[in-house]
Amino acid sequence: MNESNSYRPDVTVIGGGVIGCWAAHYLNQRGCTVTIVERDSIGSGASTGNCGYVCPSHVMPLCQPGAVLHSLPQLLSRKGALSIPLRLDPVLWRWLYRFFWNCTSSHQTHAAAARHDLLKLSMDAYRDFLRHSPIECQWQDAGLMTVHRGQRSFDAFEQVADHLQSEYGIRPDRYDSSQLAEFEPGLIEGLAGGWHFSGDSHLNPSQLMSGLKEKLVQSGVTIRESTEVRCLDVERGRLRAIETSQGRIRSDVFVLATGAESPFFAKPLGCQIPIVPGKGYSMTYQIDASQTEHGPEQSPPPRTPIIFEDSHVAVTPLGDQFRVGSTMQLAGYDRRLDADRIKMIRDDAQTYLRYRLPNTPISTWTGWRPMVHDDLPCIGRSPRVDNTYVASGNGMIGLSTGTGTGKLIAELICGETTSIDAAPFSLKRFSRES
Ligand SMILES: Cc1cc2nc3c(=O)[nH]c(=O)nc-3n(C[C@H](O)[C@H](O)[C@H](O)COP(=O)(O)OP(=O)(O)OC[C@H]3O[C@@H](n4cnc5c(N)ncnc54)[C@H](O)[C@@H]3O)c2cc1C
Question: Less Cβ crowding at N or C end of the chain, within 10 Å?
């Protein structure tokens, strides 16, 4: 149980993504006066067009033994979901070097345990929040299916399933080819099988973000959109004020929650924030009722969120819409929507679906996952600037870990005993890298 003391500072949260908004919520709940400063609008970064999975099953970090070798075919293929356009970028090369050195079984064990704690805390917090303050966000407890086209990869997943069960009590259910076709009639026949994680959920991230914004405003949080933070005024180990496009803002405490763009503030904070943007795409389609309702040859889109393991494409049912997402491009701060890539992802998804995806989505989107080389988020006080905290680097699980990250930050700022061990997320872990 948390013990709270009476420190309730004024806090300015920089960045109105899912992490900044949850941090604002938990700080406000504790009686802090909170302002969110957002350059564009709430959720305009990576937090609305994502796949909407709240997935406590995603315990394993990307850096694991053999990860580099395993990724090579993806990297060498033009169609690969993972791509790293070669360029002279010392930040990227340094990041890749560190990632490579984190691909050990000891780091995997350490990171998985910390991710498990944060994911579990977050799922409990989501359920608790939605029970008390319902937001219409299409929350569904449909689980998450990972589908394998080939028998070898399907069978090999058994080892992962055993490991997840023995270490973390997460047991996916095995569906062989015919069971999978029965479970999910929206899939083509002939796939090797799937593993279903029944403890996972999904939601509509745009609805979550707009509902959360409304709740924050109702509960007294000030939200300043179209306000870009341009400079940090640090003096003698304290952040005195931030200079923004709308003037200077002072505060007792600041939280940096600018996602993939957090490294731009590392220098004034005198610390390492080793995050690179992992660009991903999503397309949202309107479901064509004529394909699902009429005739014996009905072909509904899947009702369950699914990750197609062989092509790293993910699909999410969102009411009368359907989202397809994929790709991890370490391509720098590039927001371009590449039409060929969009078509490639759509065509990839189509090869698994009986439902005929329209050629044209109702929306296409790209966002930057904030990727840290050890695949653990950065949650904690800046080592050199006393009144500034960082909440960033949640990588591929930022939506899933938003509540837990926000809660931890609020507990740290208010001097409470933290719900889980915060040490694995501390920025101090990068100090020896400078
Ligand atoms: C294709 C794709 C699919 C994904 N699917 C999932 C999923 O299913 N489940 C899951 O858990 N995660 C998923 N993710 C990851 C998740 O979306 C991210 O981890 C998460 O959104 C990161 O949130 P954030 O608040 O840290 O960053 P952001 O959402 O990027 O928010 C940062 C905010 O800071 C603002 N900002 C930046 N600089 C400044 C400045 N100078 N001044 C003021 N404001 C500033 C930005 O405008 C932005 O709004 C996915 C990501 C992608 C790309």
Answer: N
